[in-house]
Amino acid sequence: MISLSSTAPPGVITSEGLAADLCCFPTRDRYVELAASFRADGFEMCVDLCGVDYLEHFGRWLPEGVEGTRFEVVVNLLSLSKKERVRVRVQAGNDAPEVDSLFELYPGTEAMEREAFDLFGILFTNHPDLTRILMPEEWEGHPLRKDYGAGRVPVQFKESPGPR
Amino acid sequence: MSDSNVRAAERLGLLTAETSEGAQELQRRAATNVDELGREVGAVLRLDGLTLDPTSIDHERRDDETMIINMGPSHPSTHGVLRLMLELDGEFVLRTKPVIGYLHTGMEKTGEELSYIQGATNVTRMDYLSPVINELCYSMAVEKLLGIEVPERAVWIRMMMSELNRISSHLVWMATNGMDLGASSMMIYGLRERELILAFFEKTAGLRLNLNYVRPGGVAADLPDGWPDDVLVICDTIYARTFEYDELLTGQPIFRNRMVGVAPLAAEEALALGVTGPLLRSTGVAWDLRRAMPYLAYDQVEFDVIVGTYGDNFDRYAIRLNEIRESIRIVRQCIEKMPSGDYRSQDPKVTPPPRARIGESMEALIHHFKLFTEGFHVPPGEVYAAVESPRGELGCYIVSDGTAKPYRLHVRAPSFVNLQAVSLLMRGGSMSDTITVISTIDPIMGEVDR
């Protein structure tokens, strides 16, 4: 079992000592700093990155000192050398969710961040090409948000945009 | 808990404005900025000094010298509905951009509407070539949240079925890879052998493809009578035939010319891109979750992790062929060591009562009714479970709010991440190599688009 407090920069809240999996709860401005310190500490791979919309589960459990927001970005880091996983949960904000991109640290997050943007509308600063990835470009709304009316409009395709 | 299940309208302050988005397609060079261009030619490594030579990105090149063409979405060798936009200079590929989403059916959203019992039928359709492993990953995540133990026999049944599934998945890969390269006899053989396994699946679970066999709490049914004989026949037949594939493909000059040394991947690149599975192992990184972070009973069986050296197409082929043999080794040990006992957890809150009990016990009837109307409640929390699928690390992230349906179900699909290596692998290769690259990456579009 790794010691999170040795890797995480001071001031970042971790779930160490709790029953849950190893989690870090950085603030938005310390998020990339934390990921960089993990990468330097041997977490070579960013396995997974996804968004969560906590609109209808706003009062979920969070450690003391972490203020929950509607959107959360959950990153799974993996260390092949230590055979350890760590989860980074960053509160992405309420009405304009935006976090920094991990692309410079882990280029493999490129598609995952696009997916989180596409399905949740979370913006990733400094992402090289933040466009929709699964939904059509002209789609309105972000379908995995809890306030998205599933089945509201049967088919949303519009005419093709024409030559660019 | 008072805050949970708040209607969206009561939290108007949290509702957000829409955001706009740009083009997904490959754009003309004049309309592409340098960052984006760099990514499209596969310049993925920006830290650690492993950058691509900036002069070779060649962003000064004029648009009238090159041609952008579409390959797919419905091209026979894209294994589904993958669309590749290629920028070509004659026969050579300069830039590649995979455009995905043609099979997006919102399965993660569907997962939020289905109870935990029904959820397995949903995830099994994501990676349609390895349904058992998808169900396994989902069930492991749910069981972790519930905190229940699975009986020993269920663990071994799960392990045997996932290894059989791995064999069948790799056999389809051998078949389609052969077809892509023009070795259409390999296609017939691969699908013929897979049929043996599918027949056993049908005998066990009642279905051939989307089994819904592994469920939270155990498996749906015990193995059928006489199963060791059936499985032994499968093992013997397929093991002997892997050597026929060797004769057919491994030494064949045409096959080797198209595979050896084509599209190499370095270990640093694979790690940076998050690529897992045979793609990562082909670069020499011995990373297999079955060995590195054992789940089920993989620490009690003997098998080798197959590792390549050069990371080229041929290594990826050889790894998959040999993984078939290793999986057969594991299946044989499962036959020997299969314990007796329950095939599913006896916790009445999770497992439906046996059919015979419903007629005589009021409590069994109530449990049965509650389980299939409402489903079981899962304690609030969030959990990530990962298994080694034939394509790499398959992960399942579930957020529970304490109700009978997942609040958020996210599947970390290995193909989705592996597909990012396309731009890097194809750069500078010829047009015909694109076929072998897609084939050896082995994307399953159902899983990519979910």
* Radius of gyration of chain A over all CA atoms, rounded: 17 Å
- Strand residue content of chain B: 5-15%
Q: Give the domain tally of chain A.
A: 1
What is the overall shape of chain A? globular
Question: What does the largest sheet of chain A look like?
Answer: 5 strands, mixed
Q: Find the count of extended strands of chain B (DSSP E, 2+ residues).
A: 8
CATH-defined superfamily of chain A: NADH:ubiquinone oxidoreductase Nqo5 subunit
Number of helices of chain B: 19
Largest sheet of chain B at a glance?
A: 3 strands, antiparallel
Which terms summarize this structure?
heterodimer, A: 164 residues, alpha/beta, Beta Polymerase, domain 2, 3 helices, 7 strands, B: 450 residues, mainly alpha, Cytochrome-c3 Hydrogenase, chain B, 2 domains, 3-stranded antiparallel β-sheet, 46% helix, disordered N terminus
